């Protein structure tokens, strides 16, 4: 090794994993994943043929196209939760409603698998709220008193003091403030 050898940096995998973690934490990731997974059994089961030996069991329903539309809409809503986080309330409510509609349309909502995933994902999407941005500690430094406690502006807070120079009448009817009985709202 020479002095010109660069320092060992984090590997590509570690860096990508941290980038994905930051991306995932900035949006309703799990809600979108559950909603997308809900669309798969709802759209798949009406078109599936189950083979039991030489017996073919078709699960086709009369509303096969309706279940396909519900499944595709749930997958699209899941992707929209990932990439357009501002539509989270609409996408959550829509996925809950589509999950409920899938019960009569699509084999009990994909044999209750898609129905439950749609309800859980939609509830997670509606309840998700973006986190508070990290506070910049250097921007505000509290003045320190003795013992590490912040110092107040007025050390004597036990006595209420009158405010000098301001009228005490806040009703809006005092001639001192120029209202003459009229309220400022009109």
From TrEMBL:
<feature type="compositionally biased region" description="Basic and acidic residues">
    <location>
        <begin position="135"/>
        <end position="144"/>
    </location>
</feature>
<keyword id="KW-1133">Transmembrane helix</keyword>
<dbReference type="InterPro" id="IPR046096">
    <property type="entry name" value="DUF6114"/>
</dbReference>
<feature type="transmembrane region" description="Helical">
    <location>
        <begin position="59"/>
        <end position="82"/>
    </location>
</feature>
<protein>
    <recommendedName>
        <fullName>Integral membrane protein</fullName>
    </recommendedName>
</protein>
<feature type="region of interest" description="Disordered">
    <location>
        <begin position="135"/>
        <end position="186"/>
    </location>
</feature>
<feature type="transmembrane region" description="Helical">
    <location>
        <begin position="29"/>
        <end position="47"/>
    </location>
</feature>
<keyword id="KW-0812">Transmembrane</keyword>
<keyword id="KW-0472">Membrane</keyword>
<dbReference type="Pfam" id="PF19609">
    <property type="entry name" value="DUF6114"/>
</dbReference>
């Amino acid at each position: 090794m020479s002095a010109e050898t660069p320092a060992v940096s984090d590997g590509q995998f570690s860096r990508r994993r941290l980038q994905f973690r930051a991306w995932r934490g900035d949006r309703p990731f799990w809600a979108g994943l559950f909603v997308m997974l809900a669309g798969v059994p709802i759209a798949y089961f009406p078109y599936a043929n189950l083979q039991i030996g030489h017996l073919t069991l078709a699960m086709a329903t009369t509303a096969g196209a309706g279940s396909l539309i519900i499944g595709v809409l749930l997958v699209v809503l899941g992707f929209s939760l990932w990439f357009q986080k501002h539509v989270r309330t609409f996408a959550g409510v829509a996925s809950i409603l589509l999950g409920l509609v899938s019960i009569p349309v699509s084999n009990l909502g994909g044999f209750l698998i898609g129905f439950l995933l749609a309800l859980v994902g939609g509830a997670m999407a509606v309840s998700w709220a973006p986190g508070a941005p990290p506070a910049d500690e250097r921007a505000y430094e509290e003045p320190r008193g003795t013992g590490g406690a912040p110092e107040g502006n007025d050390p004597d807070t036990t006595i209420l003091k009158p405010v000098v120079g301001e009228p005490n009448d806040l009703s809006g009817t005092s001639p001192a403030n120029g209202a003459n009985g009229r309220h400022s709202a009109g």
